[in-house]
Amino acid sequence: MSVTIDEIAGDVISRAGDVKRFLIAIAGPPGAGKSTMADNLADALRARGETAEVLPMDGFHMDNAILIERGLLSRKGIPETFDVRGFLDIIRAVRPADQEVLIPVFDRSRELAIASARVVSPEHRFIIVEGNYLLFSQGKWAELEGIFDYSVMLAPPIEVLEERLWERWRGYKLSEEEASAKVYGNDLPNGRLILGNRRRADVTLDVA
């Protein structure tokens, strides 16, 4: 399916009507372009006079010290390496738009989450949540079913993901061997897991 950011912005505004809070999910595998799309959609909504904020799921990565203790550091990013309960708590707190909610943001350059790094206020009408597992049908992630008002699934072909993931890890100055381990040992298998176990989205795109 092909649709522009402006078309999605128009669609969500139309669906939102006069509600005070409208939650949008942008889901997909690593390298699909979720964060870029979330930022662009927020800009498009603001350009139409709306208030919008982005809530990234990556802020709920477990700390590396915990992952080392559990033998999961090399698999960082799989479903078991996130604070799912904490994420669900935040989403449920954000849902009614009746209070200010402080959210964590992930700093990829330091590989850690920064607590209370962004504010979702009651005045933000559109909250754009982006992350791998928003439409994941397994485990505790399935509790997100029905909580979003609108959902977008980014599902590029595996070969496109592979190319983007190589670009990502080379950009962090990893060696070819280190980048290969990230791409083929973790990110691509995780991407296949996400694509193979997803709930239906309002919009599914093969290109972000």
TrEMBL record:
Write out the coiled-coil annotation as residue ranges: none
Annotated GO molecular function terms are: hydrolase activity
Gene3D superfamilies under this entry?
Answer: P-loop containing nucleotide triphosphate hydrolases
Q: Which residues cross the membrane?
A: none
Keyword entries, A-Z: Hydrolase
Q: Which domain of life is it from?
A: Bacteria
Cited InterPro entries: P-loop_NTPase
Q: What is this protein called?
A: Nucleoside triphosphate hydrolase domain-containing protein
Which organism does this record belong to? Rhizobium grahamii CCGE 502
